[in-house]
TrEMBL record:
Chain's role: Thiol-specific peroxidase that catalyzes the reduction of hydrogen peroxide and organic hydroperoxides to water and alcohols, respectively. Plays a role in cell protection against oxidative stress by detoxifying peroxides. Reduces preferentially hydrogen peroxide rather than alkyl peroxides. May be involved in mitochondrial redox homeostasis.
Compartment list: Mitochondrion matrix
Domain Thioredoxin: 30-194
Chief site of localization: mitochondrion
GO aspect biological process, one term: cellular response to oxidative stress
Keywords: Antioxidant, Mitochondrion, Oxidoreductase, Peroxidase, Redox-active center, Transit peptide
PROSITE patterns registered for this protein in UniProt: THIOREDOXIN_2
Subunit text: Monomer.
A GO cellular component entry from the record: mitochondrial matrix
Protein name in UniProt: Glutaredoxin-dependent peroxiredoxin
Source domain of life: Eukaryota
Source organism of this protein record: Opuntia streptacantha
Length: 194
């Protein structure tokens, strides 16, 4: 298997076996709101809720400023590791996060908010975790946490990652080496780092 690293803007790109992987420009100490200026996410909701809210979005500053937030990103709703391991690792630890003073545990993926809503309901996790869609990938692209999964017919998706953020400042950041891995981005792992 051939591995090659190259520099593209400020992001280190690695090509392993034909798959290009970006390592996040977001880092511990970064301001996540400044890293993605003027970006908003779409809170999971039904179509009717979307219509009644006039398709409102949530600016990042409203999600992070003055709050302690654990956010995790994953390749997509209804996918294997995401459904079987990643979301449950946060859902099953929600009381431990709250005991540490965390205001919100948030899941984000490049999906629309309606798919995220249906998935959250299917996982029975909507009461514990806030789900947000990044429908066009603008947030995840801004923080360089995307991966091309066209070979799996998914296109551009979030890599698998987790972060602990206080008042917009990243305190802990974990990025998996491959989207199929689940070693450093789970709920138990980040709990131990807080």
């Amino acid at each position: 298997m051939m591995t090659m690293a190259m520099k593209r803007s400020s992001v280190l790109q690695t090509v392993v076996g034909g798959i290009q992987r970006a390592y996040a420009s977001l880092a511990v100490g970064s301001d996540i709101v400044s890293a993605a200026p003027n970006v908003s996410l779409q809170k999971a909701r039904s179509w009717d809720e979307g219509v009644s809210s006039k398709f409102a979005t949530t600016p990042l500053r409203d999600i992070f400023k003055g709050k302690k937030v654990v956010m995790f990103g994953l390749p997509g709703a209804y996918t294997g590791v995401c459904s079987a391991q990643h979301v449950p690792s946060y859902k099953n630890n929600i009381d431990k996060f709250k005991a540490k003073g965390v205001d919100s545990v948030i899941c984000v993926a490049i999906n629309d908010p309606y798919v995220m809503n249906g998935w959250a309901e299917k996982l029975e996790a909507k009461h514990a975790i806030e789900f947000y869609g990044d429908f066009d990938g603008s947030f995840l692209k801004s923080v360089d946490l995307t991966v091309d999964l066209s070979s799996a017919l998914l296109g551009t998706r979030s890599t698998r990652w987790s972060a602990y953020v206080e008042d917009g400042t990243v305190k802990v950041l974990n990025v998996e080496k491959a989207p199929s891995e689940f070693k450093v981005s789970g709920g138990d792992h980040i709990l131990a780092q807080m």
